[in-house]
Amino acid sequence: TSINSFTSEFPKYETKFIQIYDNIITKLNLSPEEVQGINHSFDIKKLLTDGSLTSTITGIFTSITAIMGNYILILFYLIFILSESESISERISVAFSDENKITFSKTLSDIVKGVKGYIAGKTLLSLLQAVLLGTFLWICGVDFFIIWGFMFFFSDFIPNIGSMIVTILVAIISFLQFESIAMTAFIVVVLIVVQNLKGNIIEPKLFGQRLDLSPLLLFFSLIFWGYIWGIVGMILSVPIMSIIKITFENIPSMKPYAILMSNNAAPVEKKKRKKEKNIK
User: Fold this and answer.
1) In this model, does residue 255 exceed pLDDT 70?
2) Residue 56's CB: how many other CB atoms inside 10 A?
3) pTM for the full model?
Protein backbone atom coordinates (compact mmCIF):
# COMPACT_ATOMS: atom_id res chain seq x y z
CA THR A 1 0.00 0.00 0.00
CA SER A 2 2.83 2.37 0.87
CA ILE A 3 4.59 1.62 -2.42
CA ASN A 4 1.40 2.27 -4.42
CA SER A 5 0.96 5.53 -2.50
CA PHE A 6 4.56 6.50 -3.25
CA THR A 7 4.07 5.77 -6.95
CA SER A 8 0.95 7.93 -7.12
CA GLU A 9 2.60 10.80 -5.22
CA PHE A 10 5.92 10.74 -7.07
CA PRO A 11 4.82 13.17 -9.85
CA LYS A 12 4.41 15.78 -7.10
CA TYR A 13 8.10 15.39 -6.25
CA GLU A 14 8.97 15.61 -9.94
CA THR A 15 7.23 18.99 -10.11
CA LYS A 16 9.08 20.23 -7.02
CA PHE A 17 12.38 19.06 -8.47
CA ILE A 18 11.77 20.98 -11.70
CA GLN A 19 10.92 24.12 -9.69
CA ILE A 20 14.10 23.84 -7.60
CA TYR A 21 16.11 23.20 -10.75
CA ASP A 22 14.66 26.31 -12.44
CA ASN A 23 15.34 28.43 -9.32
CA ILE A 24 18.98 27.32 -9.21
CA ILE A 25 19.45 28.07 -12.91
CA THR A 26 17.86 31.52 -12.42
CA LYS A 27 20.09 32.40 -9.42
CA LEU A 28 23.23 31.44 -11.34
CA ASN A 29 22.54 34.21 -13.88
CA LEU A 30 23.67 32.08 -16.78
CA SER A 31 23.43 33.07 -20.40
CA PRO A 32 20.80 31.38 -22.61
CA GLU A 33 23.56 29.44 -24.36
CA GLU A 34 24.93 28.13 -21.04
CA VAL A 35 21.46 27.16 -19.86
CA GLN A 36 20.82 25.36 -23.13
CA GLY A 37 24.16 23.56 -22.79
CA ILE A 38 23.30 22.38 -19.23
CA ASN A 39 19.84 21.23 -20.30
CA HIS A 40 21.32 19.39 -23.25
CA SER A 41 24.01 17.74 -21.09
CA PHE A 42 21.78 16.51 -18.27
CA ASP A 43 18.39 16.45 -20.01
CA ILE A 44 16.77 16.46 -16.56
CA LYS A 45 13.45 17.98 -17.54
CA LYS A 46 12.99 15.54 -20.39
CA LEU A 47 13.80 12.66 -18.05
CA LEU A 48 11.12 13.79 -15.61
CA THR A 49 8.43 14.92 -18.01
CA ASP A 50 8.61 11.71 -20.06
CA GLY A 51 7.85 9.72 -16.91
CA SER A 52 10.88 7.47 -17.37
CA LEU A 53 12.20 8.27 -13.89
CA THR A 54 8.83 7.44 -12.34
CA SER A 55 8.79 4.13 -14.20
CA THR A 56 12.31 3.36 -12.98
CA ILE A 57 11.46 4.12 -9.34
CA THR A 58 8.29 2.05 -9.59
CA GLY A 59 10.26 -0.84 -11.06
CA ILE A 60 12.77 -0.68 -8.20
CA PHE A 61 10.05 -0.90 -5.57
CA THR A 62 8.32 -3.71 -7.44
CA SER A 63 11.60 -5.62 -7.39
CA ILE A 64 11.91 -5.02 -3.66
CA THR A 65 8.49 -6.53 -3.00
CA ALA A 66 9.49 -9.53 -5.13
CA ILE A 67 12.35 -10.18 -2.68
CA MET A 68 9.76 -11.38 -0.16
CA GLY A 69 9.00 -14.31 -2.46
CA ASN A 70 12.69 -15.19 -2.49
CA TYR A 71 12.80 -15.10 1.31
CA ILE A 72 9.93 -17.58 1.45
CA LEU A 73 11.91 -19.83 -0.90
CA ILE A 74 15.00 -19.45 1.32
CA LEU A 75 12.84 -20.44 4.30
CA PHE A 76 12.05 -23.75 2.62
CA TYR A 77 15.75 -24.25 1.94
CA LEU A 78 16.45 -23.77 5.64
CA ILE A 79 13.76 -26.25 6.63
CA PHE A 80 15.31 -28.97 4.46
CA ILE A 81 18.83 -28.12 5.65
CA LEU A 82 17.82 -28.33 9.31
CA SER A 83 16.07 -31.64 8.71
CA GLU A 84 19.39 -33.01 7.43
CA SER A 85 21.58 -31.63 10.23
CA GLU A 86 21.40 -34.66 12.53
CA SER A 87 21.84 -37.34 9.86
CA ILE A 88 24.83 -35.54 8.30
CA SER A 89 26.96 -36.17 11.41
CA GLU A 90 26.09 -39.85 11.36
CA ARG A 91 26.91 -40.15 7.67
CA ILE A 92 30.25 -38.39 8.17
CA SER A 93 31.21 -40.83 10.94
CA VAL A 94 30.49 -43.79 8.65
CA ALA A 95 31.92 -42.37 5.42
CA PHE A 96 35.33 -41.15 6.60
CA SER A 97 38.25 -42.31 8.70
CA ASP A 98 38.71 -41.06 12.26
CA GLU A 99 41.12 -38.28 11.28
CA ASN A 100 39.00 -36.99 8.39
CA LYS A 101 35.84 -37.47 10.41
CA ILE A 102 37.06 -35.03 13.05
CA THR A 103 38.02 -32.46 10.40
CA PHE A 104 34.69 -32.69 8.57
CA SER A 105 32.66 -32.58 11.78
CA LYS A 106 34.56 -29.54 13.09
CA THR A 107 34.25 -27.74 9.74
CA LEU A 108 30.50 -28.38 9.60
CA SER A 109 30.06 -27.31 13.22
CA ASP A 110 32.03 -24.09 12.69
CA ILE A 111 30.05 -23.25 9.53
CA VAL A 112 26.68 -23.81 11.20
CA LYS A 113 27.69 -21.86 14.31
CA GLY A 114 29.23 -18.95 12.36
CA VAL A 115 26.51 -18.54 9.75
CA LYS A 116 23.67 -19.06 12.23
CA GLY A 117 25.17 -16.47 14.57
CA TYR A 118 25.61 -14.00 11.73
CA ILE A 119 22.09 -14.42 10.34
CA ALA A 120 20.41 -14.27 13.76
CA GLY A 121 22.46 -11.30 14.98
CA LYS A 122 22.27 -9.40 11.70
CA THR A 123 18.52 -9.91 11.41
CA LEU A 124 17.90 -8.69 14.97
CA LEU A 125 20.16 -5.64 14.64
CA SER A 126 18.81 -4.75 11.19
CA LEU A 127 15.23 -5.01 12.44
CA LEU A 128 15.94 -2.83 15.49
CA GLN A 129 17.75 -0.28 13.31
CA ALA A 130 14.90 -0.24 10.77
CA VAL A 131 12.31 0.33 13.51
CA LEU A 132 14.44 3.07 15.10
CA LEU A 133 15.13 4.89 11.82
CA GLY A 134 11.54 4.46 10.60
CA THR A 135 10.25 5.93 13.89
CA PHE A 136 12.70 8.83 13.63
CA LEU A 137 11.56 9.60 10.07
CA TRP A 138 7.93 9.39 11.21
CA ILE A 139 8.63 11.91 14.00
CA CYS A 140 10.35 14.21 11.50
CA GLY A 141 7.31 13.95 9.23
CA VAL A 142 9.12 12.40 6.28
CA ASP A 143 6.73 10.90 3.76
CA PHE A 144 6.61 7.12 3.25
CA PHE A 145 8.59 6.33 6.43
CA ILE A 146 7.28 2.74 6.29
CA ILE A 147 8.95 2.23 2.91
CA TRP A 148 12.24 3.69 4.17
CA GLY A 149 12.20 1.52 7.29
CA PHE A 150 11.48 -1.54 5.13
CA MET A 151 14.33 -0.65 2.78
CA PHE A 152 16.75 0.04 5.63
CA PHE A 153 16.06 -3.46 6.96
CA PHE A 154 16.73 -5.31 3.70
CA SER A 155 19.54 -3.05 2.47
CA ASP A 156 21.48 -3.60 5.70
CA PHE A 157 22.17 -7.18 4.56
CA ILE A 158 24.01 -5.77 1.53
CA PRO A 159 27.47 -4.86 2.86
CA ASN A 160 29.07 -1.44 2.36
CA ILE A 161 26.58 0.14 -0.07
CA GLY A 162 23.07 -1.00 0.92
CA SER A 163 22.23 1.47 3.68
CA MET A 164 24.18 4.24 1.93
CA ILE A 165 21.93 4.05 -1.13
CA VAL A 166 18.75 4.22 0.99
CA THR A 167 20.16 7.18 2.95
CA ILE A 168 20.76 9.06 -0.32
CA LEU A 169 17.19 8.35 -1.46
CA VAL A 170 15.81 9.57 1.88
CA ALA A 171 17.93 12.73 1.61
CA ILE A 172 16.57 13.50 -1.88
CA ILE A 173 12.93 12.93 -0.89
CA SER A 174 13.24 14.91 2.36
CA PHE A 175 14.84 17.84 0.52
CA LEU A 176 12.07 17.85 -2.10
CA GLN A 177 9.44 17.56 0.65
CA PHE A 178 10.71 20.20 3.11
CA GLU A 179 12.76 22.32 0.66
CA SER A 180 15.15 22.93 3.55
CA ILE A 181 18.86 22.11 3.49
CA ALA A 182 19.08 22.33 7.31
CA MET A 183 16.26 19.85 7.87
CA THR A 184 17.67 17.46 5.27
CA ALA A 185 21.17 17.71 6.78
CA PHE A 186 19.79 16.99 10.26
CA ILE A 187 17.97 13.87 9.03
CA VAL A 188 21.00 12.60 7.10
CA VAL A 189 23.37 13.16 10.06
CA VAL A 190 21.11 11.22 12.43
CA LEU A 191 20.77 8.36 9.91
CA ILE A 192 24.55 8.16 9.41
CA VAL A 193 25.30 8.33 13.15
CA VAL A 194 22.86 5.52 13.97
CA GLN A 195 24.19 3.32 11.15
CA ASN A 196 27.82 3.91 12.17
CA LEU A 197 27.09 3.16 15.83
CA LYS A 198 25.52 -0.13 14.83
CA GLY A 199 28.08 -1.04 12.18
CA ASN A 200 31.28 0.02 13.94
CA ILE A 201 30.51 -0.53 17.63
CA ILE A 202 27.55 -2.84 18.25
CA GLU A 203 28.10 -5.35 15.41
CA PRO A 204 31.82 -5.97 16.14
CA LYS A 205 31.00 -6.62 19.81
CA LEU A 206 28.15 -8.96 18.88
CA PHE A 207 29.90 -10.87 16.08
CA GLY A 208 33.44 -10.56 17.45
CA GLN A 209 35.90 -12.30 15.15
CA ARG A 210 33.43 -14.87 13.87
CA LEU A 211 33.38 -13.32 10.41
CA ASP A 212 36.61 -11.31 10.15
CA LEU A 213 36.38 -10.88 6.38
CA SER A 214 38.40 -8.39 4.39
CA PRO A 215 36.33 -5.34 3.33
CA LEU A 216 37.91 -5.50 -0.13
CA LEU A 217 36.94 -9.17 -0.40
CA LEU A 218 33.38 -8.34 0.66
CA PHE A 219 33.18 -5.61 -1.97
CA PHE A 220 34.28 -7.91 -4.80
CA SER A 221 32.08 -10.76 -3.53
CA LEU A 222 29.17 -8.30 -3.47
CA ILE A 223 29.77 -7.52 -7.15
CA PHE A 224 30.30 -11.17 -8.10
CA TRP A 225 27.30 -12.73 -6.33
CA GLY A 226 25.14 -9.74 -7.23
CA TYR A 227 25.99 -10.32 -10.88
CA ILE A 228 25.01 -14.00 -10.57
CA TRP A 229 21.90 -13.84 -8.37
CA GLY A 230 20.96 -10.15 -8.26
CA ILE A 231 19.82 -8.65 -4.95
CA VAL A 232 19.53 -12.08 -3.32
CA GLY A 233 23.17 -12.75 -4.25
CA MET A 234 24.19 -9.47 -2.62
CA ILE A 235 22.36 -10.44 0.56
CA LEU A 236 23.95 -13.91 0.61
CA SER A 237 27.47 -12.71 -0.28
CA VAL A 238 28.62 -12.45 3.35
CA PRO A 239 27.36 -15.91 4.47
CA ILE A 240 28.83 -17.51 1.33
CA MET A 241 32.28 -15.98 1.84
CA SER A 242 32.11 -16.83 5.54
CA ILE A 243 31.45 -20.50 4.69
CA ILE A 244 34.39 -20.54 2.25
CA LYS A 245 36.72 -18.94 4.80
CA ILE A 246 35.71 -21.33 7.61
CA THR A 247 36.24 -24.29 5.27
CA PHE A 248 39.73 -23.03 4.34
CA GLU A 249 40.61 -22.56 8.01
CA ASN A 250 39.95 -26.24 8.69
CA ILE A 251 42.03 -27.51 5.72
CA PRO A 252 45.78 -27.24 6.46
CA SER A 253 46.79 -26.68 2.84
CA MET A 254 44.18 -23.91 2.44
CA LYS A 255 44.92 -21.96 5.63
CA PRO A 256 47.08 -19.36 3.84
CA TYR A 257 44.05 -18.44 1.72
CA ALA A 258 41.91 -18.13 4.86
CA ILE A 259 44.46 -15.67 6.25
CA LEU A 260 44.36 -13.68 3.00
CA MET A 261 40.56 -13.54 3.25
CA SER A 262 40.73 -12.18 6.81
CA ASN A 263 40.70 -8.54 7.75
CA ASN A 264 43.01 -9.26 10.69
CA ALA A 265 45.48 -12.15 10.71
CA ALA A 266 45.86 -12.10 14.52
CA PRO A 267 42.73 -14.19 15.30
CA VAL A 268 43.82 -16.82 12.76
CA GLU A 269 47.27 -17.02 14.32
CA LYS A 270 45.69 -17.17 17.78
CA LYS A 271 43.54 -20.13 16.71
CA LYS A 272 46.64 -21.82 15.30
CA ARG A 273 48.58 -21.44 18.58
CA LYS A 274 45.59 -22.64 20.58
CA LYS A 275 45.30 -25.73 18.39
CA GLU A 276 49.03 -26.47 18.74
CA LYS A 277 48.74 -26.06 22.50
CA ASN A 278 45.82 -28.52 22.61
CA ILE A 279 47.79 -31.03 20.56
CA LYS A 280 50.77 -30.76 22.93
Assistant:
1) yes
2) 10
3) 0.69
